[in-house]
Amino acid sequence: MQILKIGLLGLGNIGSGVYSLIKRKNKLIAQQSGVRLEIVRIADRSRSLGISVPKHLLTQDVNQVVRHPHIDTVVELFGGVQPTLKFVLTALRSGKDVVTANKALLAEEGDQIFRMAERFDRKIFFEASVGGGIPVIQGLREGLVTNHIQSIHSIINGTSNYILSEMTERGLDFKTALKAAQQKGYAEANPTLDIEGGDAAHKITILASLAFGKMAKFKDVYVEGISAIRHEDIAFANEFGYRIKLLAIVKKSGDGVEARVQPTLIPKHHILADVNGSYNAILIRGDETGDVLFYGKGAGQKPTASAVVSDLATLGKARSASSPMRFPRGHLTVKNISTILSRYYFRFQVIDRPGMLAKISDVLGKHHISISDVIQKERRTGRVVPLILLTHGVHESAVRRAVHAIDRMPVVRGKTQVLRIEE
Ligand code: HSE
């Protein structure tokens, strides 16, 4: 039987979930995988423990884990980039394999970490970094290995998805929905990462790197969050037959790759439109398989702990098989957002007066933007009303120039809402 001697970094929400899962299911894991998990030491800086752990396991000194002579596997659940990076690199240098749930760390410093792992012939598993309990990393690394990946369309931030679902289905306002997501343990310690798209961008950086076998740069991913979405956008989108979702997208486009996170209009009948609450879904198109959908709980203690512990079992099995580990190599070139082609939703705030639509469509026409649908609900002469326009496929650069010009017209009040549509 393969025995893993584990050092745990962090005993917060996910860390305590991992600890108790290993305690509860150790027998089952050993039966299913032939691997026994033994926790040797736990470093926790806060000591705000919600679970009872034997005192002799605990330390506040991280070095007693990452340099411990009897530990062969470090499970990193501190989160954040610094000083966690330093601990992970020390663990690798000290001959430990690493399991982590840390998407920010991998997206921003993956290159350095993977190089270090290769240099010291160590393994790194990170199933819990994307999609909580959904085995999408293993799916990409193993299950889809014969495919050239064409595209990934994903809902990978549970907090944003929960907020948008609550706003859509129950009419909740943004702040109340965010508070509920925080109470349920979905949100990051800094929820700006959730609602402004940073968390989803970290995750799509990891998926893009695995899908294309080259390291994507987190900074190349175009990011827009959901904080500017209003109830009226959800209602107007609904009238046109769309739902608004925070999508993280990576796709092949010509000889490059597009990678972006954005609130997106998707048709109500699209398979991702019904992914609600804290659920995540990752729709991957491979050239051999066609579309493959991964769906499940993308956040929360139990699903995430399940992914971490499954990595430990996989790691134990991989050790006996002595299979070499594949890491992304080189850099993935991501196209600049200004070059992408998309359909758009515009909500202009305009003064309701004759000829106003003609003026706006004139500017759009000058930038070769073709309109597919228009609605103006309210009739309030001389007052500000929303005017909604949907376009056919156009280039982002043309949209930016046109909206910049329109926002400066005297009949237009406030900043235009611009959302992209994916069919
Ligand atoms: N804050 C993340 C989310 C947790 O809401 O999806 C899981 O990574």
Top keywords for this entry?
single chain, 423 residues, Rossmann fold, Dihydrodipicolinate Reductase, domain 2, Alpha-Beta Plaits, 3 domains, 11-stranded mixed β-sheet, 26% strand, binds L-homoserine, Asp/hSer_DH_NAD-bd
Can you characterise this structure?
With 423 residues, the protein is an alpha/beta fold. It has three domains: 2-129 and 301-321, NAD(P)-binding Rossmann-like Domain (Rossmann fold, 3-Layer(aba) Sandwich); 136-297, 2-Layer Sandwich (Dihydrodipicolinate Reductase, domain 2); 338-421, ACT domain (Alpha-Beta Plaits, 2-Layer Sandwich), CATH 3.30.70.260. The chain has 13 helices and 17 strands. α1 (13-33) packs across α11, α3 (84-93) packs parallel to α4 and α4 (103-119) packs parallel to α9. It is elongated and about 80 Å long. It starts with a strand and ends with a strand. The mean pLDDT is 94. Residues 132, 157-159, 186-188, 194, 199, 298-299 line the site of L-homoserine. It catalyses: L-homoserine + NADP(+) = L-aspartate 4-semialdehyde + NADPH + H(+).
- What is the CATH domain class of the largest domain? Alpha Beta
Shape verdict: elongated
Mean of pLDDT: 94
Tally of extended strands? Answer: 17
Percent in helix:
25-40%
Pairing-aware structural class of the strands and helices?
Answer: alpha/beta
CATH architecture identity of the largest domain:
2-Layer Sandwich
Looking at CATH, which topology of the largest domain would you report?
A: Dihydrodipicolinate Reductase, domain 2
Bound molecules: L-homoserine
User: How many DSSP H or I helices?
Assistant: 13
| Beta strand % | 25-35%
CATH superfamily of the largest domain: Dihydrodipicolinate Reductase, domain 2
